[in-house]
Amino acid sequence: MTKVTLHYDLLRRLTDEDLPAISNIHSVFGIVRVVPSASLDKLTVDYDASRMMKTDVEETLARFGMPIRTGAQTVA
Question: Taking the model in full, what pTM does it have?
Answer without folding.
Answer: 0.87
